[in-house]
Specification:
Mean pLDDT: 93
Low-confidence stretches: none
Strand content: 15-25%
Strand order of the largest sheet: 3-5-4
Shape: globular
Number of helices: 6
Order of helices and strands: EEHHEHHEEHH
Distance between the termini: 42 Å
Length: 115
């Protein structure tokens, strides 16, 4: 049994999914693998996500210490960058395995069509 934020999880897999589960978190993290991205860069690279959902997911990832949000205020306009934290970087092998599976899946399933 594991506990995160006073909530119990029955196994280590459920703990992992607590941090990266859902439709968008792993996608956002995938786009941060190569380095810092601004909000608009993330929005453009994930065109089917709504702005509200992107904002909420980024906030949750930041609250979980998976990503870091850095605000640059030295010169207008205000700029915000998101990067993986050291804790977030520990997810790289998981994200890379998910990516590899997704790349290979169309060859193994008739349900998946790559456009």
């Amino acid at each position: 049994m594991y506990t995160v934020d006073n909530k119990s999880y029955p196994c280590c897999t459920s703990v992992t999914m607590r941090f990266i589960g859902g439709k968008w978190k792993a996608v956002i993290l995938h786009h941060l693998i190569d380095g810092a991205k601004r909000y608009n860069e993330l929005k453009k690279s994930i065109p089917t996500i709504t702005e509200r959902t992107l904002s909420l997911q980024l906030k949750q990832l930041e609250d979980d210490n998976i990503i870091d949000r850095k605000v640059f205020t030295e010169k207008p306009p205000l700029m915000v960058e998101y990067t993986l934290t050291d804790f977030g970087k520990t997810l790289l092998p998981v994200l890379q395995a998910i990516t590899k599976w997704g790349e290979e899946a169309p060859a193994n399933s008739k349900k998946i069509i790559r456009n």
